[in-house]
Specification:
Helix content: 55-70%
Number of helices: 13
Radius of gyration: 19 Å
CATH topology of the largest domain: Endonuclease III, domain 1
Structural class: mainly alpha
Largest sheet: none
Amino acid sequence: MKRSEKAERIRTQLRDLYPNPPIPLDHSDPFTLLVAVLLSAQCTDKRVNLVTPGLFARADNPHDMAKVPVDEIRELIRPCGLSPTKAKNIRRLSELLVERYEGEVPADFQGLENLPGVGHKTASVVMAQSFGVPAFPVDTHIHRLAIRWGLTREKNVETTERDLKVLFPREEWNWLHLAIIFFGREFCPARGHDLATCPICSWAASKSRGALEAKKRARPKS
């Protein structure tokens, strides 16, 4: 099956399963989403959603956050991990938003990616979910599924993003990246996954990928 045909079948299945997937991170505006996505690095969305209410009760806009001491931010976000670095980035990006953009989050990739702690994936999430600009944020989960499904052979998220953008309609990128995330959580875990029972992997994964996954499952636990 050609990649384009496979992508269309996957898109159809995901549309049936997740026609309107919610945004996993709780937020109220572009700034709170930006901070939440920053906090989600090496942390689950569930934990971020437990932490952000306390943080945003203290400061939910750049003007107020820029006045909160870094040590206080660090204590508020400690459960998310990497709190020293994340706290410094949240404080500094808040200051820069006030200095450069009058407290508004810029609606362009360059402006976002110039902020501390904001990479291309974080910028893509904000552009897609806050501003409705077509983007295809690729995290490690989407990267993993794209490889399993044979939609890319690349070994990094940048080239996987490029491949997925070619395969799927631009107007569906924002919906699709969320649908893939929810599918991965419900049906397609990173470890112990039986491709034969998966609604998509069962037909989309190659025999070589199936053999590799089976070998991984058979390894004794340390």
